[in-house]
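ok trying this again, last paste got cut off
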Amino acid sequence: MSKIKPKKKGNGSSDLSQLFRIYNFMVHQDLSELNWEEKEFKIMIRREYGSGISFRRYGKESRRKVLEKEASAPAEQIEQDTIIIKSPIVGIFYSSPAPEAPPFVEEGDIVSVGETVCIVEAMKLMNEIQTETKCKILKVLVSDNQNIQVNEPLFLVLPIME
């Protein structure tokens, strides 16, 4: 088990990057809550468990409405079940890991289970959104740097069954 020692600045306050390290430690150790006290420094961090991705299956009627909006969608997709990947949190949508970097995914890409498809920044924390199933990205539904809400649709995908 890793130990994290807080880095102190001249004024005694904890470095913000240390908070990121603590949060990442929590994620990797699968902790839901962390309490830490050291002299005048005290912190409690809680995180919610969840998949990080919301899925919604569309039936024939809903799928027809989606495809009517997307006239450019290939005809073979009409007969397939599509899934919407939704944002688990409020934040800012980023399609790439850095401003000059290529996007994580583009329309038409085949994505493996657990692959990062975007980042949602919330309270200065970068949250990677990953897939839970192998799928094809049919449509990116939001723009880069766009403010998004909880459960806002991010991607329209087609699951690939192997």
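PB: full thing came through this time. The radius of gyration is 19 Å.
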